[in-house]
Structure formats: structure tokens, C-alpha cells
Design goal:
3-stranded antiparallel β-sheet; 187 residues; Lysozyme
Amino acid sequence: MKILFFILFCSISGVSECSSINQTVFQYVKKINYKIEKQKVDEIVDVSKRISEKWNIDQKIILAIISVESSFDQFAKSRSSYGLMQINKGVWYNRYKDKKYNLKKLGLITNAKEFWNIEKNINAGAYIFHTTREQCRTLHKNNLLKKRGYINLFQCTFQRYNGAPTNDLYYYRKIIGTLIELKYFNK
């Protein structure tokens, strides 16, 4: 985790010693996913940077979600969740009829093979995070977070991203723990 902290420090500080963020990410990822190629890590970092700007999400949050969800494995599959950001196909691709929540109707993922596409998966995951963050902001603005069982806006966003019940804090703690280990809060 110290290596990922170095990456995060470099990304926000612009220090000249941080000349190769991609190389640093690669060294970190090799510890959690020894099969990954450097070219894939570079692509994930570059794509996450572009998409973080598109959806106004800190790149470090996207990288933390990828780390927790898939250990940077592009082809990770868990029940009905797929890819780097573990998009739940049953929920976000099939269930919702409302275009606002249906990845297929939005054109973010148009067929099942696209769940494995790095750009499409990160973009869809970022959209889901953005959408859940907006839902939680509305709850916060209307003073409903605590009434709905959420501790704070951050917990609400991550719990909804993961689909976990409000009283199950495992995922939230895992994300927060990862971000704390990454020194995300200690800029």
C-alpha cells in the first residue's frame, strides 16, 4: 500500500521525483495481481485519469475501487459482477427500465463483451459512482442520510455503489481502510 500512497502523493503534489506514476502503479499492482502486464497497468491508469475528469471523481477513488473490487484484474468475475470495477450486470444492465440507471440504454455498455473492455468498464463504474453520489447528495441536502441509516455522505455513496445494505459496513470499511492506508486523507 505504501507504493500506492506514493502514486497518490505524486498525482496531487507534482513532485519531480514522481516521474513515472505508471511504473509505480505497476510495482504496486504486481504485488496484488502478479499476472498483469505493465502495458495493462499503464492503460488502466491512463483511462482512469481521463474518466475521472469526465465524471468529476478523484482518480485515486477510482483506483481504490478497482483495487478493492478486482485487484486490477480486467477479467474479474464475481457472481453477476464483471470487470475492473465489478459492474453488476443484473442490476445496472438488465433490471432498470429507467434510462438514467440502465447502462445499455445509456450506451455505456451495449453488449455483454463490453464488460471486459477497460475503458467501457471504468466509464460505466464511474457513472454508477457519480449517480450514487448524486443520490446521496440529495439525501444529505434533505437531511435524510441518518434517517436512512447512513453514517455520512461518503458511506452512503460507497454502500450504494456496492449495493450493500446500510447496516453492513464491511465494504465501506474496506474502502475507507484502503484510502487511509493510501494516505488519501493525509495529503
